[in-house]
Amino acid sequence: MTLRFWKLSGAGNDFVLLRGLPRGYAGAALAKKLCDRRAGIGADGLLSITRHGRMIRLSYWNADGSPAFCGNGSRCAALWAKAMGWTNKTHFVLGTNRGPLPVRLTGKGRAEVGMPDPTSLRLGLRLKALGKTHTVHSVDTGVPHAVVFVPDIERIAVRSLGRALRSHKAFGRSGANVDFVSVKNGSLSLRTYERGVEDETFSCGTGVVAAGFVARVLGKAGPAAQVIVRSGAKLNVSFLDGARLEGPGEIIFTGEVAL
Is 70 a catalytic residue? Predict the structure, then answer.
């Protein structure tokens, strides 16, 4: 059989989107197959979007098949739903595995999504990795994140140090995404090593929220901040009315794939 798909990008965080899962196929298996960058379409994760009456529902799997919540994926799915005529509103609700989240379309190719409230904050962990001790702050913004502030984000070995911290025993068996953050004039620059992708990604929405939240708690940024991700895109995070993530998203192309 052939399957229609859409390729989307949220600030460089790329996804394969399906209009629901085909009968007889599990999301985890499809994510592994379709997200493979050599043998599949290639993506950081798989989005499955369905509509039941007025409710639009999103499910997400990382490239390795693990289910998760995705901030950038949620923004992209919202923009896709508007482009496909599933809603004619600029404010609506998106159902996710972290509950219903409010969406606001903020302009052409841009969307804001209400994010889960940050929880499980731990500050000032001193963790050993690659022969050095690092100061790490952890928080859950829909998925667990470890935040490390660095003076120069371009000099960090994101893959090697990110991989070492991602599976540190401090974060349990599931591990955590690892965010390296530098601060300049209240603006944040971010590079993220994502579990489930097991590599640096060009952008991570929950990582943007984690970086902004920890920076605010530590007095390094205000309640609203701009975050520049690896792709060079600029996202906005705010905690003035709950946690909110705003930024770009687009449909790159559509096609069919043989299963």
Answer: yes
Which range of residues forms the domain containing residue 98?
2-114+248-258
Check residue 16 and report its DSSP letter. E
Q: What is the dihedral of CA 155, 158, 159, 163, to 10 degrees?
A: 140
Does 170 share its domain with 127?
yes
**Residue 54, pLDDT score:** 85
Annotated active-site residue in 8, 68, 70, 161: 70
Do 173 and 209 have their domain in common? yes
**Catalytic residue list contains 204:** yes
What does DSSP assign to residue 66? -
How many CA within 13 A on the CB side of residue 256? Answer: 4
What is the C-alpha separation between 117 and 170, in angstroms, rounded?
22
> How high is the pLDDT of residue 26?
97
Say how many domains are in the chain. Answer: 2
Backbone angles phi, psi at 161, to 5 degrees: -75, -40
Domain co-membership, 7 together with 82: yes
The pTM for the full model equals 0.96
CA proximity to 101, closest of 247, 210, 250, 245: 245
Residues in CB range of 63: below 8 A, 6 or more apart: 31, 32, 35, 36, 43, 44, 45, 46, 196, 197
Going by pLDDT thresholds of 50, 70 and 90, the confidence category of residue 185 is confident
DSSP state of 68: -
Q: What is the CATH number of the domain that holds 37?
A: 3.10.310.10
Inter-residue contact 60 to 37 (CB < 8 Å): no
| From 204, 215, 228, 245, the catalytic residue | 204
In tens, the pLDDT along 45-69 reads 999 999 998 899 999 999 999 999 9
Give the pLDDT confidence score for residue 74 in this predicted structure: 98
Q: Which pLDDT value is given to residue 93?
A: 97
